[in-house]
Amino acid sequence: MELNLANFVLNLRQQAKSAWPSMVKIYIVATFVIILAEIIGKMAGLTSYILVSDATEVAHLSPYTGLISNLCVLGWAASAGICFFTAFVARLNESFYQRWFQFFVISGIFSTWLGLDDLLQIHESIGEFMEGLVVSAHHPTLSNLLEGVVFIIYFGLFVVYTLYLRKHIQRTEYLFLVLAFGLFASSIVIDTLISDTAFSGKYLLEKIPKFLGIVSWLVYFSRTGISTIQHYLFTPNN
Question: What are the record keywords, sorted (predicted)?
Fold first, then answer.
């Protein structure tokens, strides 16, 4: 037992000695994120308790509140993680790096942004800001139209993303990517054209294609990441 404990401590020291430069960078970034979140919270008039606690705990709601929405955010995060991991692995093979590194880095950044937007509802905040510039009082119809403008901007980002990386995409099984785009478009059309008070099932009708779109997005990058890693790292003469 003493020998095992001694080895454990020795291994910890060796790992700390080799990993400390990375540890410093990692925890500096993590600390910066916490400080930035605290600053944003103060600007928004939030207490530290509200800032760090779960939303369901603060609002005294069921932990299942927003379950589908939370799963959507997890889907974006998983997609981003897969893209960044594959980009990192691409550095192990020169040909892999030259052909695919940029694709996975850009896709990871894009997925991260979409996840943050979904988590923080950035598109709605932009729509509300634009509405405030036009009228002084809240107008539901105008709000929906301005939010639609924001979605058009996002559509433009998808178009730019697709055109810029079209050569990479053409070399993949892009069925799930096309499905993702179509499902996202369906969700946006429903959200923009149908009033929130039109009928009780409007939110469900909007969220289902969005959720399925994120699932398709995740499946696409999972399959693409696996196939490229397998091709360049586990197939001879690549």
Answer: Membrane, Transmembrane, Transmembrane helix
Three-state DSSP class for 190? helix
Q: Six-digit token pair at 83? A: 């893209």
Q: Are residues 108 and 47 in the same domain?
A: no
Verify that 119 and 3 share a domain, yes or no. Answer: no
Q: Which residue has the tokens 């103060």?
A: 42
Structure-token match 């405030």, residue found = 132
Owning domain of residue 13: 1-53
- What does the mean pLDDT of the chain come to? 87
User: Residue 181 is encoded by which pair of tokens?
Assistant: 């785009």
What's the confidence (pLDDT) of residue 235?
A: 75
Flag the least confident range among 31-40, 109-118, 134-143.
Answer: 134-143
Q: What distance in Å separates the CA atoms of residue 47 and residue 41, rounded to the nearest whole number? A: 7
* Closest of 185, 175, 186, 167 to residue 219, by C-alpha: 175
First to last CA, the chain: 48
Q: Does the pLDDT of residue 127 top 90, yes or no?
A: no
Q: Which pair of tokens denotes residue 110?
A: 């894009």
Tokens of 30: 């993590």
In this structure, the answer to whether residues 75 and 103 fall within a common structural domain is: yes
Residue 85 lies in a domain: yes
**What radius of gyration do the chain's Cα atoms show?**
22
Lowest mean pLDDT among 35-39, 72-76, 234-238: 234-238
In total, how many domains does the chain have? 2
Mean pLDDT throughout 36-41? 89
d(CA 238, CA 38): 48
136-149 pLDDT, tens digit each: 555 666 666 667 77
The answer to whether residues 75 and 179 belong to one domain is yes
